[in-house]
Design brief:
Layout lengths: L14 H9 L5 H19 L6 H12 L8 H13 L9
């Protein structure tokens, strides 16, 4: 696979997702990879809570792994949720 140059070129992301990430200060694929899905999600919701949903978290994880977000295994989704819970980022409406 050719290395993506822009966030919108990653699987699961498009122009709208790229804009959301940029508003949160994530401007490059390298930054996204360094932060990981949870780190990116945390920065996004710190800037705009209306983007607080698990589909975004799973899309970010899928983008990093280069897989469609719906193919992420249940155990991996649970791992992400446990990390969010440890960071006090899980709302009851997200569970």
């Amino acid at each position: 696979m050719k290395k993506p140059l822009r966030l919108r070129e990653l699987k699961n992301l498009g122009p709208a997702s790229e804009k959301i990430l940029q508003v949160a200060g994530i401007n490059t694929v390298e930054q996204m990879l360094e932060l990981g899905a949870v780190g990116c999600y945390q920065k996004v919701i710190e800037h705009e809570t209306k983007h607080k949903n698990l589909n975004l978290l799973y899309a970010l994880e899928g983008a990093i792994r280069d897989v469609h977000w719906q193919t992420i295994a249940r155990d991996d989704k649970m791992r992400l949720l446990l990390i969010l819970d440890d960071l006090d980022l899980v709302d009851t409406h997200l569970q």
